[in-house]
Amino acid sequence: MSTLEYDAVVIGAGIAGLYQLYRLREKGYKVKVIEAGTDIGGTWYWNRYPGARVDSQSHVYQYWFSEELNNEWSWSERFPTQPEQERYLNFIVDRCDLRRDIQFETRVKSASYNEDSLRWIITTDTGETFSTQFLISCGGMLSAPVKPTYPGEEKFKGQMFHTARWPREGVNLAGKRVAVIGAGATGIQVIQTIASEVEKLTVFQRTPQYTIPMNNPKLTDADRNAFKKRFHELKEKVLGTYVGFDYDLDPRSWAELSSDEQQQALEEIWADGSLQFWVGSFFEMFVDEEVNKVISDFVRKKIRQRINDPEVARKLIPTEYGFGLHRVPLETNYYEAYNRDNVELICVKENPVEEVTESAIKTADGQVHEVDIIIFATGFDAATGALTRIDIRGRGGRSIKEEWSKEIRTTLGLQIHGYPNLFTTGAPLAPSAALCNMTTCLQQQVDWITACIEFLKSKEKSEIEASESKQDEWVAHHDEISKSTLLAKTNSWYMGSNVEGKPRRLLSYIGGVNTYHQHCRDIVENDYAGFDLR
Ligand code: NA7
Hints:
This protein is α/β, with parallel strands linked by helices and 534 residues long. It has 18 helices and 20 strands. A hairpin with a 4-residue loop joins strand 4 and strand 5. It is globular, with a radius of gyration of 23 Å. Residues 142, 148, 181-187, 204, 206-207, 327, 348, 377-379, 493, 498 line the site of ligand NA7.
């Protein structure tokens, strides 16, 4: 089979990959997007489980490249469902005629850099070979699912699904006995949605979450028009805030408020029913244990009020870590699900799963939980998984998988020293790895990458690579900020602790989207100082 030649190959047709295709094609490059799924959407293609919904407000979770398209689209809710997100992305793809440059049902297996031709050679599971000057990973920060395996699992006669591999045709859960394993953001959405539909729901929870009740009104024409009028303002604003939303951290210091004022401030942002209570409140929450404790107690009290059985409340209310140190899910009637007679909660730390039989899950206390369907909502190999599942070889045959099995390092999450002309989005050590309204950060990274490629062209250069010293400098800066936070002291997927053997480092840059954006701009303004051009 002959080698297919491109200027740029983009891995993944999700939010970042689609936008990267749009931008590079607009500049006249020959681009191919390689996508494992049968259709576009990335996260919003794969995660089609019951109750899947975005946790960012629709008016800031969207593309900003066309006011015209923005005016044509109408969001129905403040926090849209997965089907609506998917429809929106299809609308963009169709209007921009992006599909013709996307190859579906193709997974990139390997990518190796040829130092003589200065090109990446890519192989796929379809047996094709692509050659490209630029390789751009848009494979998602939460796209490599992780799933525990249990003794006896292969004998199970019912159905098993990971939420991130939910079948397109759906699954009939009505009247079934269902187990949900994992109660993070995804598990919570599944549980609250299916509890009233299934005959019996057994939840196997390892770590309880702090949550915020979602305030999700239907949008009126007046709401939509008000947001549309603010298109340019919002587009600018999201890049200048701490986590890429249109709200920002409270400018007041926690200490300057009296205890009553603190409680009042918390009540006010709690009422907004969004992630503002987490990433748009008091920065001290992330660094000061005392402040974190007050806020954690506030949330614990809110949760406790909604659960009838004190023993169930004990299991559902986090005590081992503080509020905001894990990704905080939004929920709707989640706790009320546990007040139902058909829902049972098992804490696997107290009562582990011992085995799966033909028809049941057996726990250490000897109980046999008969189930027809097992749903794994057990998360992802975050930020690194999208890259380490591909055999990527840079200069001298060095491998990202091997290097990151020892230490996870990048240059602003945009390039990796040793891998020229490889650009990454949603990768470690950038806010887009986890601490960002994703559309904000992914578009910002794609714009940076596009400008970088254009810069190379204008200088008549063929290759760009982050120097070792630039990367060292960024890693040191990242660590300095992250080490001052409580997140770095807490086990969570933010620290890689959900994947055995994963080296510990805060995956996401926590200095703020605004600060990160400034660092990216500084590089451009300084003609890419710290990057080697050839
Ligand atoms: P998460 O947030 O990683 O949640 C997965 C949950 O599954 C988490 O609470 C895990 O517990 C739990 N888990 C993992 N393995 C097990 C086993 N063996 N038994 C029981 N529970 C287990 O992934 P989500 O898909 O919910 O959310 C990902 C992101 O999507 C979310 O942050 C948003 O950005 C959208 P642990 O905490 O590791 O003890």
